[in-house]
C-alpha cells in the first residue's frame, strides 16, 4: 500500500496499527489459555494443548493488529524466547501465582529477558499476569510483584494484573492497559516511547 493510502486510512482511523507482542513465562503458567481468551471467538479453540516450541499468529484487538508470539516455557525451549525479542513492542509475562516455589525461577527468566540487548533497546511495556488466582494458596499480585522484583523496573512501564485465564477474569483489564500503552506509544511515533515516559507500575 502506498504511503498516501496508508496516511489517508490512518487519518480516517481505518488502518489497524500493527504491534508485535511476545507472551512468555514458565511452562504451565497459562500463556496459551490466555492467548486463546484474547482471540476472536471464531479462532478460539476448545482445547488448549501444551505448546511445542512456539506459535505465531496475527489477530485484531480493537484498533491494533497484533502479532502474538506464544512461546513454550518448557526449559528446553526457553532459549528460543530471545530470537523473538527484536522489535518487540509489548511483553506479556505470565506466572502461575499458585506455584510459589517456581516464582523465583520465573523472576530469573524475567530478569534475563529485561537484560537482553534487544529488549533494552526499546521500552516495550511489560504486563505481568498473576494467573491462576482461583487456585488455593495463590499469591496475591502485591506479593507476586515483590517476589518478581517488579518495583526495580524503572526503564519501562509495567503492570501486574491478577487473572484467571480459564474464566477470563482480569484478562481484558490487563490487556486494556497494554493496548493503551501501545496506542499512546504509536501515537507518539516511537514504539515504547510513551511507555518509558510513564515508567512505573501499578498493582491490582
Ligand atoms: N485453575 C486454573 N487453571 C489454569 C488457568 N490458566 C491455565 N490453566 C490450566 O493450566 C494448564 C496449563 O495451561 P497452558 O495455557 O497450556 O499453559 P502454558 O504452558 O503457559 O501455555 C492447563 O491445564 C490450563 O487449563 C487459571 O487461571 N486457573
Ligand atoms: Mg503453551
Question: Could you explain how this protein is built, in words?
Answer:
By secondary structure, the protein is α/β, with parallel strands linked by helices. The protein contains 7 helices and 7 strands, in the order H-E-H-E-E-E-H-H-E-H-E-H-H-E. It has a 7-stranded mixed beta sheet, with helices on both faces. The longest helix is centred in the last third of the chain and has 17 residues. About 5% of the residues have low confidence. The structure holds guanosine-5'-diphosphate and magnesium ion. Guanosine-5'-diphosphate binds next to helix 2. Magnesium ion binds next to helix 2.
Secondary-structure element order, N to C: HEHEEEHHEHEHHE
* Anisotropy-based shape: globular
Mean pLDDT: 84
Question: Based on helices, strands and strand pairing, what is the structural class?
Answer: alpha/beta
Topology readout:
Elements: H1 3-11, E1 17-24, H2 31-38, E2 54-61, E3 64-71, E4 90-96, H3 100-115, H4 117-120, E5 126-131, H5 141-148, E6 158-162, H6 171-187, H7 193-197, E7 202-203
Parallel strand pairs: 1-3, 1-4, 4-5, 5-6, 6-7
Antiparallel strand pairs: 2-3
The chain binds guanosine-5'-diphosphate and magnesium ion.
Magnesium ion is lined by residues 31-32, 50-51, 70, 72.
Amino acid at each position: 500500500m502506498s504511503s498516501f493510502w496508508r496516511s489517508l486510512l490512518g487519518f480516517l482511523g481505518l488502518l489497524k496499527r500493527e504491534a508485535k507482542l511476545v507472551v512468555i513465562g514458565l511452562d504451565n503458567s497459562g500463556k496459551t489459555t490466555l492467548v486463546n481468551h484474547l482471540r476472536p471467538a471464531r479462532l478460539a479453540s476448545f482445547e488448549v494443548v501444551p505448546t511445542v516450541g512456539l506459535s505465531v499468529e496475527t489477530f485484531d484487538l480493537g484498533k491494533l493488529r497484533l502479532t502474538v508470539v506464544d512461546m513454550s516455557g518448557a526449559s528446553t525451549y526457553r532459549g528460543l524466547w530471545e530470537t523473538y525479542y527484536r522489535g518487540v513492542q509489548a511483553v506479556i509475562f505470565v506466572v502461575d501465582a499458585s506455584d510459589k516455589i517456581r516464582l523465583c525461577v520465573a523472576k530469573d527468566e524475567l530478569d534475563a529477558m529485561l537484560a537482553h540487548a534487544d529488549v533494552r533497546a526499546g521500552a516495550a511495556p511489560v504486563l505481568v499476569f498473576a494467573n491462576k488466582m482461583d487456585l488455593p494458596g495463590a499469591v496475591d499480585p502485591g506479593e507476586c510483584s515483590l517476589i518478581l522484583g517488579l518495583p526495580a523496573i524503572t526503564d519501562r512501564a509495567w503492570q501486574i494484573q491478577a487473572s484467571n485465564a480459564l474464566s477470563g477474569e482480569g484478562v481484558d483489564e490487563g490487556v486494556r492497559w497494554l493496548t493503551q500503552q501501545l496506542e499512546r506509544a504509536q501515537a507518539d511515533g516511537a514504539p515504547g516511547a510513551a511507555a518509558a515516559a510513564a515508567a512505573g507500575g501499578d498493582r491490582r
